[in-house]
Amino acid sequence: MPDTRHTKYLLSEDEMPKTWYNVVPDLPRPPEPVLHPGTKQPVGPGDLAPLFPMALILQEVSGDQYIEIPEAVRDIYKQWRPSPLFRARRLEKALDTPARIYYKYEGVSPAGSHKPNTAVPQAYYNKQEGVTKIITETGAGQWGSSLAMAGAMFGIEIEVFMVKVSYNQKPYRRSMMQAYGASVHASPSDLTQAGRAILAQDPDSTGSLGIAISEAVEMVATSGGKAKYSLGSVLNHVLLHQTIIGQEALLQMAQADDYPDVVVGCTGGGSNFAGISFPFIGEARKKGLNTRFVAAEPMSCPSLTKGVYAYDFGDTLGMTPLVKMHTLGHDFIPPGIHAGGLRYHGMSPLISLLHDAGVIEAKAYHQTSIFEANLLFGKTEGILPAPEAGHAVKGALDEALQAKEEGKERVILFNLCGHGHFDMAAYDAYLSGKLEDYEYPAEAVAAAQARMPVV
Amino acid sequence: MPDTRHTKYLLSEDEMPKTWYNVVPDLPRPPEPVLHPGTKQPVGPGDLAPLFPMALILQEVSGDQYIEIPEAVRDIYKQWRPSPLFRARRLEKALDTPARIYYKYEGVSPAGSHKPNTAVPQAYYNKQEGVTKIITETGAGQWGSSLAMAGAMFGIEIEVFMVKVSYNQKPYRRSMMQAYGASVHASPSDLTQAGRAILAQDPDSTGSLGIAISEAVEMVATSGGKAKYSLGSVLNHVLLHQTIIGQEALLQMAQADDYPDVVVGCTGGGSNFAGISFPFIGEARKKGLNTRFVAAEPMSCPSLTKGVYAYDFGDTLGMTPLVKMHTLGHDFIPPGIHAGGLRYHGMSPLISLLHDAGVIEAKAYHQTSIFEANLLFGKTEGILPAPEAGHAVKGALDEALQAKEEGKERVILFNLCGHGHFDMAAYDAYLSGKLEDYEYPAEAVAAAQARMPVV
Questions:
Q1: Is residue B263 in a domain?
Q2: Cβ A379–B424 below 8 Å, yes or no?
Q3: What is the value of pTM for the model shown?
Q4: Please, what's the b/e burial string for A99-132 (b: 16 or more CB within 10 A of its CB; e: otherwise)?
Q5: Cβ contact (<8 Å) for A6 and B431?
Q6: Within an 8 Å CB–CB cutoff, is residue B171 touching chain A?
Q7: What ipTM does the predicted assembly reach?
Q8: What is the full DSSP assignment across A61-72?
Q9: Using one digit for the tens of pLDDT, what is the confidence trace for A133-184?
Q10: A230 lies in a domain?
């Protein structure tokens, strides 16, 4: 009889890491410079100052391995952190696998996902530098609601451009932002030139993260210095803040007296995958371990598995600096899958570099397979995951089933980055057989990639 | 400057209580007997056997102070327990009160509320006695989704009658039950005589917990012994299971080196209020403390503040045994407030007795005041509470403001029984000014009370 006793690994608040983990010293080569969209020359910290407070810009370019978490940030982290790490014994039993499956659970935060890990420090550093208003965008709304919460806590006004397909699919996330006091616009909107340009081309546009970024950046640029911009993924400092996840998981795996053979996370812009994996990538380098790292992404928006590694804009209209990353083309509009948090044309430059260098692997999944995995997970472990998080569940299931086929042990650690309580309409669609899979839109991607800037 | 540092009190899994706390030995007089609806004579355990497994019936009538929690139940409890206890320093600061406010947070469970505390043991005891199917009802869906989860874990089929107004207001709770594998019907339905009788009178009936109970009980009674019944509140054994909350809170208040002057919980059927308060009621009796206990209920369904203390049916159609409780009349249909979990005509017999004996107090609130309280709580503490839980928030705010007025310290402990992630439509209604308050329906209650059985 397999042991199905529940096992949870907890840390005390005193054991909560006091630093974030910067992966830059572990990279096989230095990060590529960020380029000015006009001159195509490397930008300096001063070029980013209209968008971000200086403390975050310095984190963006830092080469230090450890960066201290301010006490005021740790104080709020303690509302939900340290988060639990579970051994998924009931799931293992259902799969009849020799693999040992562990998951770190970030759905215990007040917003129900990992996003507050960076929303809180971003609001904190903005507050420190006297910023009174932050403008951002959000896909599924996990990021927007987290920043809205952090804004309420620090007394900063928050304005959010929310991708229209999610605004309609997930109205409860919009309400949540408003409950925290934020104002929310469906993007594309008629509030910006960027939004109006998209609507002129396609009045029925359901939007994309890239378009919403264009709108938010334009709004900041035209605010006369009255507002700063904030991003919930992609950038180095955002990924940095999420490494509290992996830092805790390292301590918890030690409690379990075990160590992962493979670390799995879902990827949209890359922040939760970075959060769980970067500290383990550091361990692998320092100790010469053969740990595998698997990024799980949607088949319909597969930036790592199908994108090119090249300089491109972070937004659809080409207003942001150019970054070297895996990209499907900055004006590619992904299909309206329910994992709205993963609908981004690009990928974090740090994760792109790690993928290009062969440090990490990537896999792409159809959304029906994600919901099938989530239902099995919910029935065995009790938690119904968000569609985004389901990509990591599916990736972990694949690893466990492969171990079973090979008849070998395998230790799997994955990041369950959020619960699905806001996504029950998507579960409904799946359960009633109405959830569609979208084939990889090869032609649209090729066309978008042909429109990328030449660097 | 007040100290606004975040403070959370945690227990290790080893410290999780191994017993539930039975309040019966602490009552000022013995509980009143349950009567057969036909003969009006006291029922024995055998009379309840068609509805419940014997282990739960024995808990229902037990006079033992402590009842052991089975290891298999504790094992699943550990998925989310021990739950955190917080000191609400940011809220205290916003209120500028000398009161110290603590809250126990039950929204960390996979279902987002305290209901799994009893769903898991109920499924366990049914499984132990070979039951393969359980039929139940649910108001807002918190109970139904919790039993659906527990059923999935123990391999028991779950069928749920969900009050129609919530079925329509909260479709995500229905999807959640279905995701766990349960079947769900909007009540009143045409599947039972009870449902058809209500629909014949009023085809547009939005239902009530009382009607849904009638339907579930009838379905069990006509199942030929193939299904048992389960209730998510009201009964002694259900309240017993929830005392894990207060047992933990006692240990956590000791960690904080503090003790409540007043304990606050919301009441619908009474289970979460009992969960937090019963162990403290026991402490008060044994140590001669003057702790106050405040039950917070909706103004539109105020069973404790406006009900009579008398024998009445637990369901609308008069199929259940008669219990002595505070009741608005078994066929009173409460207005469709968003706190669907509190829309019940009666109150747990144990809590009714304690109220009648002056051990506990009760207060009634309008729903707009609940959402106002919840927004303040969300903006300061980060968590957006469920509308039901908001009654406890409001009760705690009132106590804190009274302490401020008196310029005196007061230690307040309340139970935050669930998060509001499924209730954002209600927040939306409040934020857009569309949330209505319902005056106390005095005439409808008087008419319903006139139709109560004569005992």
A1: yes
A2: no
A3: 0.95
A4: bbbbbbbbbbbbbbbbbbbbbbbbbbbbbeeebe
A5: no
A6: yes
A7: 0.94
A8: T---SEEEPPHH
A9: 999 999 889 999 999 999 999 999 999 999 998 898 778 899 999 999 999 9
A10: no
